[in-house]
Design brief:
Chains A, B: Pfam families: TetR_N (PF00440). Chains A, B: Keywords: DNA-binding, Transcription, Transcription regulation. Chains A, B: GO terms for molecular function: DNA-binding transcription factor activity; transcription cis-regulatory region binding. Chains A, B: This is HTH tetR-type domain-containing protein. The structure is a homodimer. By secondary structure, chain A is mainly alpha-helical. The first copy, chain A, folds into 2 domains: 54 residues, Homeodomain-like (Arc Repressor Mutant, subunit A); 111 residues, Tetracycline Repressor, domain 2 (Orthogonal Bundle). Chains A and B meet through helix 6, helix 7, helix 8 and helix 9 of A and helix 6, helix 7, helix 8 and helix 9 of B.
Amino acid sequence: MARPGLTARRIVDTARTVADEDGLEAVTLRRLADELGTGAASLYRHIDNRADLLTLLAADFIEGYPLVPAGRRSPQEAAVRQWVAMRRYVAEHPWSATLIASGGFHLEDARAVADHCVELLEATGLSRTRALRCYRSLWHLLLGEALNAHAVGHLHDAPPEGGDFAWAARALIAGAASVR
Amino acid sequence: MARPGLTARRIVDTARTVADEDGLEAVTLRRLADELGTGAASLYRHIDNRADLLTLLAADFIEGYPLVPAGRRSPQEAAVRQWVAMRRYVAEHPWSATLIASGGFHLEDARAVADHCVELLEATGLSRTRALRCYRSLWHLLLGEALNAHAVGHLHDAPPEGGDFAWAARALIAGAASVR
């Protein structure tokens, strides 16, 4: 009686906690039912299957994307700050890179952050075509760094504290204006 | 009697064929024994476990890395060509990106290609520190593009034919010289 009702909100909050603690593989209907102290039947009234659950989780993740206003920064630095904030957000939820890269869902909710990113890139003087190439490439850079457990620097030096992402994003954005 | 002997060469060639056809998950000792028409016991005389098998496969993959000579290209274009060749090689063996990113092995054999890549980047005028940052970032870009099944351009345009990699590598290398 005192137990709070089973809502989509509670389900997705629990899914995120499980993913943060034990990774994406742990996010199953059985585990969620256990965590929520409910039966699978009750859960099935809200979600059909695991793919549904991951889509809910992805939609929730996307809602939390940072939108960094340009402020008084140079257009280049404003764009870099936006991507650094996105990189940090992905790092805070390590499972998210796997979920994004799996490509299993298309969520219209991502449009706000995508548009913001592309606008910031266009503000650096890039044509729309170049801003879009840069946008896609920055995503690959972000996901590659997030997904790569291989110490690509192991044959040489270790990466500097905090990684190379901000530096690489800055270089890519600076170079995007000049190359053919 | 006429059956060729079981050699490490035959095992790794078969492992690569299985990976190319059915992905990395299909590369198991059981499948290899089936493909080679041999018993698990014979296989165990060459390899201890699946991790061994994947290390063999990775070592073989690394041996095949392209080393593109600079030739008469500009230093920038020479570096870009090297990375485009590596991108293509990874694309020809789609399982390789997962294997590299898993970070489960460290192979000294990769040193030749790593050194070549860093030297080409230094030849563009980058300091060693910047060349190393650029090297790691180009790896992330490559792996991110290879691992990302998500249509990051789906909210906007589709990527141009052949993808953005060469363009992004060129932009990153050009920008690497100018940013702080």
